[in-house]
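Shipment paperwork, digital attachment
Item: protein structure file
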Amino acid sequence: MSERSIRAAAAEQRPLETWGQRVGPLVGLPLLLADLGVDPPGVMAAAGLPVDALANADDRIPFDAFGRLLQAAADMTRQDHIGLTVGRMVRVDHLGIIGDLARNATTLAEALQFMVVYQHLNGEGDLVFAARHGPIVEVGYAIYYPGVTGAKQIHDYALAALFTVLRELAGPQWVPSQVFLPHARPLHALHYEDLFRVLPSFDSEFCSLRFPAHWLNRPVQGADPAQRLHSLDAVQRAADADLLQQVYRALRQVMLAGKSSGDDVAGMLSLHRRTLNRRLRERGTTFRHVLDSVRCEVARQLLAHSQLPLDVIAASLGYAGASPFTRSFRRWTGSSPGDFRKLAMRRPDRGA
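Attachment content:
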């Protein structure tokens, strides 16, 4: 067995709880907290993290701790837009080898492709997606890690980070024409309009930015072809993600396109459906279990943070109507969607 195969086989034994988040984009958080008059070690402790967890850019924290950290920062600073503030501090260099690759891409389109394909090297519970709809491009973010804490803060952080990274790659003239966030409009929406240069559409199904497609042809200024090849080799050598994480990630991606079948996921992973089923059984799970897990997590986020009607949420999860969705949600959680939403609205972290 090759060294690459050995690494891949070892990766497939990793439990979900070990999926991590690279801390590079978060290294400025302690200084921000101190500037806001909040004790950084106290926030770290509230998130269940050691005080030096953000000291080295290439270190990793559990993905769920990523959400707990942003939520603790929001609670202790009393700034519900803290995820937005942290995200707007992110620069291309903070993305590690993915940032090196994007900075040396030939065009913005290629830089986006690299960011989409290799996102799992930075975050193992989320994904970046990009799609072209005629003259419009949509670039967005989604979480597939089940039961994550602080989903609203993570979405704000991720979209702000995408905004700042795209402006750095495309130039300061780039701005989105539309912005979508999957949570209710906050009391102080001005913070969002100030960053994105346009007021977002809140209570959306997706977390995304839209802009004219002609920007895709924009050359990345200062790109080095030799460094591009070096960086591409580095990310390809690092890209052995474990199977279970790949299935969660692929399923969340096909759901964004309105699909949810095992055949769609198997095709995305270049596997035969029977092979996918067999390998999932070897991990002690099934495609149906993963599908339920991802659907449940997306439902929890939309119920807790948005005012989307139940039939819209049901359709976004691939259900024919609100009734079958309600039955499934009760089976997953022991609660109806309506009761879950009411309870979530009374909680500081909005239930997710």
